[in-house]
């Protein structure tokens, strides 16, 4: 029973050429009631089935059931093999006792296209066909049938008012036997044009439960003067055919048993419509209603039944370094609705939305393709370590420049071991070590010609993720040989990084001094600035780089900044 997937029938089906190839596809339509248990008020026969909400407690006496010559099963047997079998409802003298209900509980959501009932008895004078899409919690009438709609239900007849939920069709007492009741869930005019995978069709065709309420038999239509034969069954049904299909949104052509095992299936060999889709088009889920884990580069869509377009899910480009991705609306919009996938849990020391760059502390090996699992390796300790974004390298002692290519001011003799400090208090020739006069020193450490970054908008401040944002007074600047230190008085902390900032004096470190021998952007002692920039990893030092924001503080700047920080960067 549990190994139904392995039966030859399924293997054979799966081996066939798929009709889903680049096209919308659908599983075959069959009778949803075949092989499933139908419940009626008159078949509450103990044996475990008494737990069903339809059955009153305690259940009907089992003896009466075991010898029932017309069990519910006879409604769903093959009408060609067993044309003369039917279900008969229990008899009763009052109208309430004569009411009955046939209920089909499905283990998951299905599409119901139409329902056909073939009566052995005369058709009911009043009945209702109802569906639930929430496993029986709430019900909705799909159609009600009455010989006289206004009397039974207070509704107009759809003969007079097309679209009314009530109809007098199929309610005539004639024929005495073999009368049909037919319900189409889509009316024939829209069935031709409506895309079966559209939200509208979905809301009209989906069911988890179906019930047919037999409300009034023909014997009660005429006043109960001729009530002699009312002891016999008021309703008898040859066939109940609930035509429908597994719900797959156009992304599957085969379905297999649903895992929801707590709903018993009478006989799996008899089931013609199973509930779990075998998804194609890179979709997933019991109903192919989401994208497969690595295929979330654009939003899931149902197939288009009108045009036949498959609308498959699109694979995320993770360069072979991730097994899953999620969809980001933001990435989607910023790419112009081309790609919204964000790779999750990048492996092999990769990082980024597409696992396309190396993790912090690792570097690309240009000789290997990006998809290689060895494309990112830990930086060897021999060469300089360089910041992956700024490109600034950490050099040997006395060495400077973004690529550690020359001696810092105050050092000389560039070589494998770095640079040696000058033997004089100020500056020496970087090649010979000969001490220089103060005039040359002045020229060497002259002001940089800086391209100052202007703060054009709040969004610009937000775009770059600054570790710290402060308002500070510059007190003094100091040459420390290998680096420069600027003393500031912090007046306001708008954001701090790993190291919590406090009001009062602090040091900031202009990196440009190390690489270029001057301070850039310019920090003038005595001025008050808005400062925003990065922390040095590890030490938490506040760095000032060419990417930092250094803007003289004005009340207007203050207002803009505090507003944007309060509202959060978006
Ligand atoms: C129902 O009960 C009868 C009598 O107790 C028993 O013989 C039969 O096996 C039971 N059927 C099921 C399906 O449990
Ligand atoms: C339904 O019953 C009402 C009240 O008895 C009557 O006026 C009406 O003509 C009936 N309609 C039909 C279609 O028989
Ligand atoms: C499906 O295809 C038809 C015909 O090409 C088109 O008019 C319709 O908009 C499509 N539906 C969706 C939801 O894109």
TrEMBL record:
CDD domains: EGF_Lam
A GO term from the CC aspect: extracellular region
Protein name, entry field: Netrin-1
Laminin N-terminal domain ranges (all copies): 21-245
Domain of life the protein comes from: Eukaryota
Disulfide bonds: 395-404
UniProt keywords, alphabetically: Disulfide bond, Glycoprotein, Laminin EGF-like domain, Secreted, Signal
PROSITE patterns: EGF_LAM_1 (PS01248), EGF_LAM_2 (PS50027), LAMININ_NTER (PS51117), NTR (PS50189)
Alphabetical list of Gene3D superfamilies matching this protein: 2.40.50.120, Galactose-binding domain-like, Laminin, Tie2 ligand-binding domain superfamily
Gene Ontology process terms (BP): animal organ morphogenesis; axon guidance; basement membrane assembly; cell migration; substrate adhesion-dependent cell spreading; tissue development
Domain Laminin EGF-like: 316-421
Residue ranges annotated for the NTR domain, each copy included: 448-569
Location of this chain's protein in the cell: Secreted
Residue stretches in coiled coil: none
Gene: si:dkey-202e22.2
Signal peptide: 1-26
